[in-house]
Write a structure and sequence with these properties.
heterotrimer, A mainly alpha, B alpha/beta, C alpha/beta, A: 71% helix, elongated, B: alpha/beta, Rossmann fold, eight-stranded mixed beta sheet, 32% helix
Chain lengths: 295, 329, 332
């Protein structure tokens, strides 16, 4: 027999990036795929909608409480001040999406940082940060965010911060759990044997491998931040200078019985967007969870 | 010759995967006599465990199915038996122990409760009687202070003790056949020796036939009278253990024996390179093709091997090897 | 061993704090490695054998500076390495590399094969980029991987190929000492031979020194020049390959040897099986005396009273057993 290697007839797999594989898994979840298409539409609307639909959402343009379909110039009708609801919804998309993304970013940033530190270091760092996390976990979230907004004023950045600050503990917990698991794997030890420093171990070796559940959680976070903002807006704690979906509901809530459409239309917008985000999150979970990936 | 306890004929098990339908067990036949110990040997992915699961009627639902062939237990056909009948046989007449004693016990119940549960389900014993019986069984598998340890939870026991509990559970209903799927792979070698010793004694005392699945030729040599070497879902070689170890007639068997450095009676300075079996087990897509599936790793390969699946060649004492070159070896 | 050893370990002790009995329970210590000393000559292989919980892997990790030792000295090529930090430690890491047990978890799933092999070069050396690539390509060829496999991710390889990647990574910085922690125990039997042969070939090719950790006496018999048997954190017997396998002195070693199932018929018929009952004692609450006494078939009263020292008998054979004297006759 000649060299054993030449006898082998194994096929060589093509180098495929994990992203390709994840996308293939994602594609198989049809609901998530549809949701992704809808979400893309929502995002496009947020970006170019106001430019395309030139009407100012603050302009009082017609009789208040024009019902949808009564006047074809205002397809979705008008609110209690006679403003065009469609213009408000379009402009609100941008604000709601921005709030959702920004608040999710804040909470993921805090959550990942705390979770990574708690999961990586033992001893006093872990003790102190865990108590800190538990403190935030037991705070009533809505009340606490209301206090922040009430104290520091209802500006957009403050609302984003308030939502982020009350919702990062979930991300921290997930990050910590993943870090605790991955820290014990041999490739982390192997990296240490190769001379990697702690910072590199945490953020270049462990974090990328911990990302899948964090990404899923972050996606869901965007949805819940939009909902949270709507909740605050409904209570009147919102930036009066910008239109968001929640704010439309909040300002029209007094007229709910007479003109329910002023509340239900932005409500449906929130519902559809948040549902789609959840479905995409679910799809991401399938795509990124190696256990579900058929070998 | 008496009727064998278990008779498997031309068994074919198909697995439905994304890539299509593949025969993970392809035309397998063997017999198991009363009180006999037979071993299945091969690398992972060769269909050893699948054979055991099919005998137990535990093929993964919706994925695996018996496509053809027969499994006869005491003359009773199992492939067509009803689910109820299979459930009745399972645990009662044929039982199984698994590789991982850590995960095959339920952590929230005491070991006594888990053994008693089996006894009550299959033999209708009262709660008290089942509990006492559980203690007796623990004693039979040589757990010290069995009486006081029946109330222990699995986490309070060592790996070896957990495997003993699994054996006690499997033996609870005095099965005719005990299937042991890599029973000692997760255990230390001194504990493995204890478990082997226990299994040998139990077999002597109860006459239970044992089917042991393993990858360790040494364990086969210690435990079994006959062995079946499996490769890619097919029978590679079957026959008496000592005879096969002395003179394997299939290059895969030969490779499995000589690729492992064994402990020998008189060690010398001399050290040879180990015989390599190059490559790995073929992927599922290759299964079922009409050629020798081992050919890609074989140094005796000729055109014949790639053209057609080799038939079984028979040798003395029922040794059979599925290889075109069996006589040359 | 006449010339100066490459690796000299003296009185190495590693302990872990364990909490028992609730959050405020007293701190107990588990001595995973307890006062262990050994030497490895350059170009040779010392195997440390033992069962789970014997401390063999912990000892290896401590030598590689991957867990912190509590006490003792580790001397590599004449330099004490246990207390090095920073740049000095990185210099040592270059010389001591590790091959891990589980090829499925020892490669970062997000790194391509070539990046796995390149990592030690990046972190530990200042090798210029072009040269790094050349070294990586070279290593791929040496461990039997094909160049077109460089860009693949770990999950696209079989277990044996993954272990080859792990070996290439260990070789990247041209180390003197390679610690192999159960390098084949997670692999299929037929693949084990490929890796073991590769390791032996590389040893001659590069003049490597191995510290070989294993529970498999067959593998150890094949790979090593001398063997240290560990039990519950202690070395109980240490001898060259032939004396240990042909003339084991410690009852535990004998039991271990006789417990290995073998295809050798003469050995099976010759050796009466020495079955040692029970399980090892609780490592946190070690009994007084010899740690093996509760399972030892020939234990006497003094074995339960005082712990035996590791003493040298005939021909450099070291043993920790009261029942073996300078005559070097096994008590069994």
């Amino acid at each position: 027999m000649s060299d054993p290697v030449t006898v082998l007839e194994e096929e060589i797999e093509k180098a495929r990036h994990p992203f390709t594989e994840a996308w293939e898994m994602f594609r198989r979840n049809h609901a998530a795929l549809v949701a992704l298409v809808v979400l893309t539409g929502v995002v496009i609307m947020a970006i170019i909608g106001p430019a395309l639909y030139g009407r100012d959402p603050y302009d009082m343009v017609w009789t208040p409480f024009t019902r949808p379909g009564e006047n074809w110039d205002f397809i979705l009708g008008t609110d209690y001040l006679g403003r065009d609801l469609l213009a408000m919804i379009i402009s609100g998309t941008r604000v709601s999406i921005i709030i959702g993304l920004a608040a999710a970013f804040v909470s993921v940033f805090i959550g990942v940082t705390v979770g990574a530190l708690v999961g990586f270091y033992r001893g006093w760092v872990e003790e102190v940060l865990m108590r800190f996390t538990e403190f935030f976990q037991v705070l009533p979230t809505l009340l606490f965010s209301m206090v922040i907004v009430a104290l520091f004023g209802a500006s957009l950045p403050m609302i984003v911060l308030a939502i982020g600050v009350v919702s990062w503990t979930a991300v921290a917990r997930i990050t910590r759990a993943e870090f605790l698991r991955i820290r014990e794997l041999e490739y982390v030890t192997a990296s240490r044997a190769s001379g990697a420093r702690n910072g590199k171990l945490m953020f270049r070796v462990i974090l990328p491998n911990a990302l899948p559940p964090i990404i899923v959680q972050s996606a869901l976070m965007v949805g819940s931040a939009i909902l949270f903002e709507a909740g605050l807006a409904f209570l009147g704690l919102t930036d009066p200078n910008v239109v968001s979906w929640g704010q439309i509901i909040g300002s029209n809530r007094t007229y709910f019985l007479d003109a329910s459409f002023t509340v239900t239309i932005p409500g449906v917008a929130i519902f559809v967007t948040v549902l789609c985000i959840s479905l995409v999150g679910d799809g991401l979970n399938d795509a990124l969870n190696p256990k579900l990936r058929a070998r | 010759m008496t009727e064998p306890l278990l008779k498997v004929e031309n068994l074919r098990i198909e697995l439905t995967t994304r890539a299509g339908v593949t025969p993970v067990i392809d035309n397998l036949s063997f017999e198991l006599g009363h009180g006999e110990n037979i071993s299945f040997v091969g690398e992972s992915g060769c269909g050893k465990s699948m054979t055991a699961l099919s005998i137990m009627g535990l093929l993964p639902e919706g994925v695996g199915r018996i496509a053809s062939g027969s499994i006869q237990f005491h003359g009773e056909e199992l492939t067509t038996a009803s689910t109820e009948r299979l459930r009745d046989i399972r645990g009662n007449e044929i039982s199984m122990i698994f590789q991982e004693p850590m995960t095959s016990l339920n952590p929230v119940y005491t070991v006594g409760e888990q053994i008693a549960e089996v006894l009550r389900a299959h033999q209708g014993l009262s709660k008290k009687a089942a509990w006492d019986m559980a203690a007796e069984l623990l004693d039979a598998v040589r757990i010290p202070n069995a009486k006081s340890r029946v109330g222990d939870y699995p986490f309070q026991m060592s790996g070896g003790q957990r495997q003993r509990v699994m054996i006690a559970m499997a033996l609870a209903c005095k099965p005719k056949i005990l299937i042991a799927d890599e029973p000692t792979t997760a255990l230390d070698v001194t504990v493995q020796a204890q478990i082997f010793d226990l299994l040998r004694d139990l077999r002597r005392n109860t006459g239970t036939s044992i089917i042991m699945i393993t990858h360790d030729m040494g364990a086969v040599a210690e435990m079994a009278e006959r062995m079946i070497v499996m490769y890619a879902g097919r029978n590679a070689e079957i026959g008496p253990v000592d005879q096969i170890i002395d003179r394997p007639r299939h290059p895969y068997t030969k490779g499995l024996i000589s690729c492992v450095p064994h402990i020998v009676a008189n060690l010398t300075e001399e050290r040879h390179d180990l015989t390599e079996v190059p490559g790995i087990v073929p992927s599922l897509q290759e299964f079922g093709k009409n050629r020798c599936l081992f050919a890609s790793r074989c140094n005796l390969r000729t055109d014949e091997c790639l053209r057609e699946r080799p038939p079984a060649r028979e040798f003395e004492n029922g040794q059979k090897a599925d290889c075109w070159h069996a006589e040359e070896l | 061993m006449s010339d100066t050893p490459l690796l000299k370990v003296e009185n190495l002790t590693v302990r872990f704090a364990v909490k028992r009995g609730g959050g405020f329970g007293k701190k107990h210590f588990l001595y995973a490695v307890d006062d262990v000393s050994f030497e490895v000559a350059k170009g040779e292989t010392l195997a440390i054998v033992g069962e789970s919980g014997s401390g063999k892997t912990t000892a290896a990790l401590a030598v590689a500076r991957l867990v912190d030792a509590y006490a003792g000295e580790v001397d590599l090529g004449g330099h004490e390495i246990l207390h090095l930090e920073g740049e000095d430690l990185r210099r040592v890491r270059r010389k001591v590399q590790f091959i891990f047990q589980d090829p499925y978890s020892s490669l970062n799933p997000r790194q391509r094969a070539e990046d796995v092999v390149r990592e030690p070069l990046l972190s530990l050396t200042d090798t210029p980029k072009e040269e790094q690539q050349k070294i990586v390509d070279d290593l791929f060829a040496h461990v039997g991987l094909r160049p077109e496999q460089k860009r693949l991710f770990p999950h696209q390889f079989s277990g044996g190929q993954r272990q080859r990647i792990g070996i290439a990574r260990a070789l990247a910085t041209q180390p003197e000492l390679i610690i192999c922690d159960e390098p084949v125990s997670a692999l299929d039997v037929a693949v084990q031979a490929q890796i073991l042969n590769l390791l032996r070939r590389l040893q001659t090719e590069y003049g490597l020194t191995y510290l070989f950790i294993s529970h498999d006496l067959g593998v150890v018999q094949h790979m090593s020049d001398s063997i240290a048997v560990m039990y519950m954190g202690k070395i109980v017997e240490h001898a060259d390959r032939l004396s240990l396998f042909n003339n084991p002195l410690h009852p535990y070693t004998s039991a271990l040897l006789s417990a290995v199932p073998t295809v050798d018929k003469t050995l099976r018929e010759k050796s009466r099986r020495i079955l040692i009952p029970g399980d090892p004692p609780d490592p946190v609450n070690l009994p007084k005396g010899c740690r093996f006494a509760n399972r030892c078939p020939v234990a006497q009263d003094r074995c339960r009273e005082t712990e035996p020292d590791l003493k040298t008998v005939k021909g450099g054979h070291r043993i920790a057993c009261h029942l073996v004297d300078h005559t070097a006759v096994s008590p069994l």
